[in-house]
Amino acid sequence: MVEILKELAPRLKRVAIIHNPAQAPQLGMLQAIQAAAQTLGLAAIPSAIRDANEIEAAVNVFSHEPGGGFVVLANPITNRHRGLILKLMTDRQLPAIYPFRYFAEEGGLVSYGVDAARQFYQAASCVDLIIKGAKPADLPVQQPTKFELVINLKSARTLGLTVPSALLARAHEIIE
After folding, report:
1. pTM over 0.85
2. CATH number for the 2-115+147-175 domain, one of 3.10.105.10, 3.90.950.20, 3.40.50.40, 3.40.50.2300?
């Protein structure tokens, strides 16, 4: 996610990572993003959020200096307040990458994450096996196998960003 954001916004110097500290898996993601940011020469600043007020405060504090962008992690809080997040990023002209395609469809710059429909399909397959008598404990743990890159060109133009052709070629969908 950080690499994609840096490709889109080459002047990026630092990224804030909006995450929910109550979700243990997000801590691992946070560490991975911080490591990736470091290899790209970016400062990575965790921004723990629990509600809309903390989202707004995090964006306000971070947006005072130029060269900033956001990585928004998937969690119920960011999902519930995605309208606010998208508005804040647009109003403050901040590049951000989001976890699900609907963020880009609703005006976000770019999303990179699992194909949610494929996840439901995998879950349905497990349910089918259980209904047919399989023991849940005997089923293998399934990892996502398909990730989607969705780029919103209108948002890129609004931010004054030129999307590199190599990134456009990798995109699963381009929103005009």
Report:
1. yes
2. 3.40.50.2300
